[in-house]
Amino acid sequence: xxxxxxxxxxxxxxxxxxxxxxxxxxxxxxxxxxxxxxxxxxxxxxxxxxxxxxxxxxxxxxxxxxxxxxxxxxxxxxxxxxxxxxxxxxxxxxxxxxxxxxxxxxxxxxxxxxxxxxxxxxxxxxxxxxxxxxxxxxxxxxxxxxxxx
Length: 149
Prior knowledge:
Elements: H1 9-23, E1 28-32, H2 41-51, E2 55-59, E3 67-68, E4 71-72, E5 86-89, H3 99-104, E6 111-114, H4 121-129, E7 134-136, H5 140-147
């Protein structure tokens, strides 16, 4: 467990619940910043999660009409046809300006997971204030491979 994520006992219990209910049990994950380039880290994580039966929604307006690993791209989070459990963020902070407004347009609050390199302390704090659970700087693939059978 990373001190970046957990600072209080209640947060540790919540982190353990997230791992059990969402990371170790396949859930619905939107991958913001997905690409058609299969050698990129985002694509390796996407492939890993798909191979473990997660329902994956690649999100990147640049690739609308294309597929990766036989999955259609979505132009936005709000365009995904069902509620997601985790929004996995792979885009850097300078490209995240739209994210808060887009999240406010959906009727539910997914876990917002900032992969290494995508951390944005200011946005993360705003999301927490709005009631989102935020994971920052942890790789979901590493968390899964370490904690799940």
